[in-house]
C-alpha cells in the first residue's frame, strides 16, 4: 500500500497511517484531504519564525507537522489519548522533524487533579465530557498546570483543539508570555454563551479577537493590539 501524502499549500506531509489505525470517518477525511485542512490553512498563518509553540490535542500530529516547517520553531505537543500519541509520533518521525516533542498528558488551569477522559472511536471526539456521545472506554489522567509549562518553555503561541476543554482552560489560565492563541471553538458543547465567556476572559487577559487570523470556529487571539495596514494580497487570497 502506498504511503499517504497530504499537501497543505506547498508543504507535503507524509502520513504513514493505515485504515485500521483510525475510524472509517477519519480515514475518509485523510483520503479526501479534508482532515484538519481548514485548521492547517489558518494555523500556518498564525505561526511565526522563532515561535515556541504549545499544542494541545495534537491528534495525528499533522497540524504539528505543518507548524514544524516554519523556520526556527520548537513545539511541545500533548494529547490525552495515549493511542493517538503513538500515531502522532509515527507521523512526526516519518517526516523527519526534530523540533517537535510529543507527550501524553492533559494540561489544564489550576492545581493538578485526577480527570476522567472519555475515549471515542472517532478520536477527534474524545474529551473530558461524558455526555458528548458514546465512548469506548474511560481513562483517568492527572492534569498538569498549563501556566507552569508555558513559563518554563517560554511559549509564545498556544495552539489547541481540545473538544470543549478550552472553555475552562481559557477562563482560568494566565498564559504568561503568550503572544497568540489559536484554537477551534466548540459552541455545540457550551453554546454561544460559552463563546462569549471565552472572548470576555481572553479580553480580560489582554487578548483581542483577531478577525484576520480567524475563520468560522477557527479563532485567533492576539496580545498585539497595534494598528495594522490593510493586506490586499491576503484579502484576495482568502476571498
Automatic annotation (TrEMBL):
Gene Ontology molecular function: methyltransferase activity
Pfam family, one: Methyltransf_21
Entry keyword Ribonucleoprotein: no
Superkingdom in the source lineage: Bacteria
Keywords linked to the UniProt accession: Methyltransferase, Transferase
Methyltransferase FkbM domain: residues covered: 116-204
GO biological process: methylation
Protein name: FkbM family methyltransferase
Species, as recorded: Phyllobacterium pellucidum
Amino acid at each position: 500500500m502506498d504511503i499517504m501524502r497530504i499537501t497543505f499549500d506547498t508543504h507535503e506531509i507524509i502520513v504513514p497511517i493505515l485504515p485500521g489505525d483510525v475510524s472509517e470517518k477519519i480515514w475518509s477525511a485523510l483520503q479526501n484531504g479534508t482532515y484538519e485542512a481548514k485548521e492547517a490553512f489558518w494555523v500556518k498563518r498564525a505561526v511565526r519564525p522563532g515561535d515556541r509553540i504549545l499544542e494541545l490535542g495534537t491528534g495525528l500530529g499533522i497540524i504539528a507537522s505543518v507548524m514544524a516547517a516554519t523556520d526556527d520553531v520548537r513545539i511541545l505537543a500533548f494529547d490525552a489519548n495515549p493511542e493517538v500519541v503513538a500515531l502522532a509520533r509515527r507521523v512526526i518521525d516519518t517526516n523527519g522533524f526534530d523540533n517537535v516533542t510529543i507527550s501524553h498528558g492533559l494540561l489544564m488551569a489550576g492545581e493538578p487533579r485526577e480527570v476522567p477522559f472519555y475515549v471515542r472511536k472517532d478520536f477527534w471526539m474524545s474529551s473530558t465530557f461524558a455526555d458528548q456521545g458514546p465512548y469506548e472506554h474511560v481513562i483517568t489522567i492527572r492534569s498538569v498546570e498549563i501556566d507552569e509549562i508555558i513559563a518554563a518553555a517560554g511559549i509564545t503561541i498556544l495552539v489547541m483543539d481540545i473538544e470543549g476543554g478550552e472553555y475552562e482552560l481559557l477562563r482560568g489560565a494566565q498564559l504568561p508570555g503568550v503572544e497568540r492563541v489559536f484554537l477551534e471553538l466548540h459552541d455545540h458543547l457550551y453554546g454561544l454563551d460559552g463563546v462569549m465567556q471565552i472572548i470576555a476572559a481572553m479580553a480580560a487577559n489582554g487578548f483581542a479577537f483577531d478577525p484576520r487570523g480567524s475563520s468560522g470556529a477557527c479563532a485567533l487571539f492576539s496580545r498585539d493590539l497595534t494598528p495594522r495596514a490593510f493586506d490586499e494580497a491576503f484579502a484576495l487570497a482568502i476571498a
